[in-house]
Specification:
Layout: H1 3-29, E1 35-36, H2 42-46, H3 52-66, H4 83-89, E2 93-94, H5 112-125
Parallel strand pairs: 1-2
Length: 128
């Protein structure tokens, strides 16, 4: 192989590798930041798939009344958030670090299992 052809092959390989890495990094950067359900507004929550303004309002009202969510799974407490809807938005939401730093200001909601059963019953009857 001639030196010119060898150089073009190496240059093309380097360019192809650079483009591949750049596209991969760009895809990583374009992922939206998760929505913090403890600080998001009704409008921000309503943009989540399947949530809408009514459920978003319920989330904010629950948060204002009971304090921050400790786990994203607590959204199953909210009327209109069934397991299927929750699994769809789970990768898009977070409770952030402020809810994990301690129990100050947190109100116990009863057993989480009770709320899960309640949420499963809603799944059959609530189409928000």
């Amino acid at each position: 192989m001639s030196k010119g052809k060898e150089f073009r092959t190496i240059a093309f390989s380097c360019l192809a590798a650079w483009v591949w890495v750049s596209l991969g990094l760009q895809a990583e950067e374009s992922k939206p930041a998760p929505v913090n359900i403890n600080t998001a507004t009704v409008e921000e929550l309503a943009r989540l798939p399947g949530i809408g303004p009514r459920i978003a309002e319920r989330i904010v009202q629950h948060r204002e009344k009971n304090g921050p969510f400790r786990r994203v799974e607590e959204l199953l407490i909210i009327r209109g958030v069934n397991r299927k809807k929750f699994e769809k938005i789970r990768p898009l939401i977070t409770v952030g670090t402020e809810a994990r730093t301690g129990n100050a200001g947190l109100v116990r909601h009863g057993s989480f299992e009770q709320h899960q059963r309640h949420g499963d019953q809603q799944e059959r009857s609530d189409d928000d």
